[in-house]
């Protein structure tokens, strides 16, 4: 449901409906503003607009936070979801393409530096996302003793909180470049000090005039980027509220003891 609310297609339909109802009664400044909004929404249907939005979101991953060669701190991989219910832990066909790419990037990181590979992600099915990814990681020759799974979480925020206390503060956080800025907020809130490893980037630079032609693939990319922007704002609010509660708790205890 949330994707429908955040989709530029929904916005375009609402704007079209408002235009049909109110255009004749609108004054000139309102019409100009309305036209600008419509142009921005239309741009998000094109590869040019979608990729610029993706680039803006991915830029939230600061260069200084990238993992360095030789770092052997635990790798935390955030799963990318399932297409449907897996029948067993080796039912790799149910992994989304994003999950495959994220795992490939995390395994490459493990092969170059070693360390523990912690795969986070539960999901709504009996066989969990992390279990399927762990099975695939073993088939890619990751040492069994180096793999640990977190099965309970259903969101990035829950993954961060579920791992709190079971890992050192310093971790290597692996996910897509589009997802990492939001994930970083969650893991900071949980007390971690991660470096970031981007398994892939959704950004593609424009190469021809075709970048201005609306495409369904651009709409999907815009929806994903908008979801990360809104999700990041929600996570920042959660982190701010959690920080406020942690400060208030000692104050209450101090008052009770006085």
Description:
With 258 residues, the protein is an alpha/beta fold. It folds into two domains: 2-59 and 214-251, no CATH class; 65-198, HUPs (Rossmann fold), CATH 3.40.50.620. It is built from nine helices and five strands, in the order H-H-H-H-E-H-E-H-E-H-E-H-E-H. It has helices at residues 2-6, 8-22, 28-43, 47-58, 97-113, 129-139, 156-163, 180-189, 216-257; strands at residues 75-78, 117-120, 147-150, 172-175, 195-198. It has a five-stranded parallel sheet, with helices on both faces. Helix 2 (8-22) runs antiparallel to helix 3 (28-43) and helix 7 packs parallel to helix 8. It is globular and about 70 Å long.
SSE blueprint and pairings:
Layout: H1 2-6, H2 8-22, H3 28-43, H4 47-58, E1 75-78, H5 97-113, E2 117-120, H6 129-139, E3 147-150, H7 156-163, E4 172-175, H8 180-189, E5 195-198, H9 216-257
Parallel strand pairs: 1-2, 1-4, 2-3, 4-5
Helix pairs in contact: 2-3, 4-9, 7-8, 8-9
For the terminal residues, how far apart are their CA atoms?
50 Å
Query: Which spans of ≥5 residues are poorly predicted at pLDDT below 50?
Result: none
Question: What is the tally of helical segments?
Answer: 9
Structural class: alpha/beta
- Strand composition percent: 5-15%
Q: What is the name of the CATH class of the largest domain?
A: Alpha Beta
Overall mean pLDDT stands at 92
CATH architecture of the largest domain: 3-Layer(aba) Sandwich
Order of helices and strands: HHHHEHEHEHEHEH
**Biggest sheet descriptor:** 5 strands, parallel
Rg over CA atoms: 22 Å
Helix content, binned percent: 40-55%
Number of strands: 5
Q: Give the number of domains.
A: 2
Overall 3D geometry? globular
Strand order in space, largest sheet: 3-2-1-4-5
The CATH topology of the largest domain is given as Rossmann fold
CATH homologous group name of the largest domain: HUPs
